[in-house]
Amino acid sequence: MRTIYDLSYEQLEIWMIEHGHKKFHSQQCFEWLYRKRVTSFDDMSNLSVALREQLKESFVLSPITVRARQVAKDETIKYLFALSDGALVEAVLMHYPYGKSLCVSSQIGCNMGCTFCASGLLKKTRNLSSGEIVAQVMYVQQQLDPMQQRVSHVVVMGTGEPFDNYDEVMTFLKTVNHDRGLAIGARHMTVSTCGLVDRIRQFAHEPLQVNLAISLHAPNDELRSQLMPINQAYPLDQLMEALEYYSLFSNRRITYEYILLKGVNDSATHAKQLANLVSGQNAYVNLIPYNEVDEHGFKKVNMKDALAFYDLLKKNRVQCTLRQEHGSDIDAACGQLRAKAVKGEKR
After folding, report:
1. Which of 13, 29, 90, 168 is catalytic?
2. Prediction pTM value
3. What pLDDT is recorded for position 45?
4. 29, 110, 117, 334: which is the annotated catalytic residue?
5. Is 244 among the catalytic positions?
């Protein structure tokens, strides 16, 4: 059975009309779901009993339950959710001075095959529905409600390639952005892609001003193809052309994500190549400490070398940040906790 979170506001309006109800009932229902954040259709007290029964017959409310929860020393929280079919998916809540940012997953597993990433330890079995992504946000928000806190930022950077599940991800973004719902600002949301160029061009024309992040991680084709198989299909010249198109039509700044891997992509030469690659763009580089994954063998760069790489970019007039490390004492890497849980079940 579908979750009601699968329905956008407009889709809920259509459902109400098709089932003999007034259009304004969708507004009432949406507010119960996303503002009052009820956990039962029976709590929607200003809807008729007949309508509530129809909703219960047609939908489940939340399709997830919590399988595990890890809390790091820095208060980063990783959630492992079980979906209605038993599949497992992760979300991570991170605390920043500007608010609370939730990283959500968009697929069960990942087929992109990035050699350093825990998400790809288990191959993709299916896409998540928009409602299954929404449910990740809703559960975490309900945990924050007693403290009068809110999820202020959302990043679609968890397990999966969001642009490989494009339509469902777009519906998710519209739902959590809707002003009758959670009303998370579009500019407080970011979607990350490893470089599906056709979808980048499509994303340029989306009406929502959601941020775009590119998982780059290497400044030249040879190294990027070794680390990220997607580069063999869409090499850097095609990726940069698509991003130029995106910038032209969206007028939005691009974020380049660059995980620093010790002895792999962290040399002065790499820094200079990266500076040349992004020179002149409306973009900045987010340097990311690596959360080590035992199965892959890559090591993270020490802080001294990370700062040296950062300084070289700054000297070459590249806007950049060195991201604060989160959850290093838990299974913080995308897909890491899920992979351990699935392997444990198989044993």
Report:
1. 90
2. 0.93
3. 96
4. 334
5. no
